[in-house]
Amino acid sequence: MQQKNNFITVSIIVPIYNTEKYLEECLKSIVTQSYPYLEIICVNNGSTDKSSEIIEKFAKNDRRIVVINQENKGLSAARNVGTDKARGEYIMYVDADDFIEVNAVEVMLKNILTHKTDFVIESIWNYDDEKQMRVEREDRYFTLTWLGPNFNNRPIKIEELLFKLYNLPVMAWGKLYNAKFLKESGVKFPEGLIYEDNLFFTELFFKAKTFSIDRRQLYNYRINVKKSITRDTGKKYNHMIIIMKKMEEVLKKQPVYDAVKESFMHYKIQHLMRSLVFVNPKYEFKYFYEIKNDKVRLQVFEY
């Protein structure tokens, strides 16, 4: 365990690829955290814009920043490298086009230390990039409002939410992880695939004993971002199918598979259909055909 001056160190991993428009705001929100004992790992994933210059400017003025430069191997590879290099007792992921509230680390660290859980999930702000403002809307998925007050201020056993597993936000960001738990779990982000968070969360969830939640909105997730990877998946049009198959393989190995099967099927259908929106038109028919011919017959096609 890495400590500085007897204080716990939190490693924040920021994967970066051509995000010059947002990177300064992201890094500023991290270096100005109310909790100062940080290791800030910037993984520059082969950026060709001015991201490198912005990283170096921040690193020059803040010794807590560790810079890793590598060729573009994708988001998963960048997170995996950052995780392997992290020396902190706790780990957080922040995407380079998002930003966090000034007290995010302090609040989440207090939560995870108090409840002694494997990870803590925070509530999320939707930040509209076009309107340049937070979106005030009831988003039960991000705000965790579907979880009743009986889940507040205590460790939650994974068995308590098996039937609602996929009501929980699966994103890697918006959480604080116990580094020892995370590394010993052996769970990695699947490299070469998009929609990686779905598989990562599924594997990690079943490695955990307990987690906790914090209802304060501490992470700002930027929506309506131009050139977002979720707008056009290109040749990766079928990656959602691949990810869902891998998730099902993980679930089938669990003794509680029967308990989560129905929840997963609803989640699978919903996300396969939703991802159609982001498929390049020239791949739409191929994608729909591959969904229809999935070995696990989706009931939606039987109606």
The ordered H/E elements are EEEHEHEHEEHEEHEEHHEHHH
What gyration radius follows from the Cα positions, in whole Å? 19 Å
Compute the number of strand runs: 12
- Secondary structure class reads alpha/beta
Helix content: 25-40%
> What do the pLDDT scores average to?
90
Work out the helix count: 10
Instruction: Name the overall outline.
Output: globular
Q: How much beta, percentage-wise?
A: 15-25%
Could you give a short description of this structure?
The chain is an alpha/beta fold and 303 residues long.
Describe, in plain words, how this protein is organized in 3D:
The structure is a single chain. This protein is an alpha/beta fold. It contains 10 helices and 12 strands. Strands 3, 4, 5, 6, 7, 8, 9, 10, 11 and 12 form a 10-stranded mixed beta sheet that branches. Strands 1-2 form a two-stranded antiparallel ribbon. A hairpin with a 2-residue loop joins strand 1 and strand 2. Helix 7 runs parallel beside helix 8. It is globular.
Secondary structure layout plus pairing:
Blueprint: E1 3-4, E2 7-8, E3 10-16, H1 20-31, E4 38-45, H2 51-61, E5 65-70, H3 75-85, E6 90-93, E7 99-100, H4 104-115, E8 119-128, E9 133-134, H5 140-143, E10 156-157, E11 175-178, H6 179-185, H7 196-205, E12 210-223, H8 239-252, H9 257-274, H10 284-292
Parallel strand pairs: 3-4, 3-6, 4-5, 8-12
Antiparallel strand pairs: 1-2, 6-11, 7-12, 8-9, 8-11, 10-12
Helix pairs in contact: 1-2, 7-8, 8-9
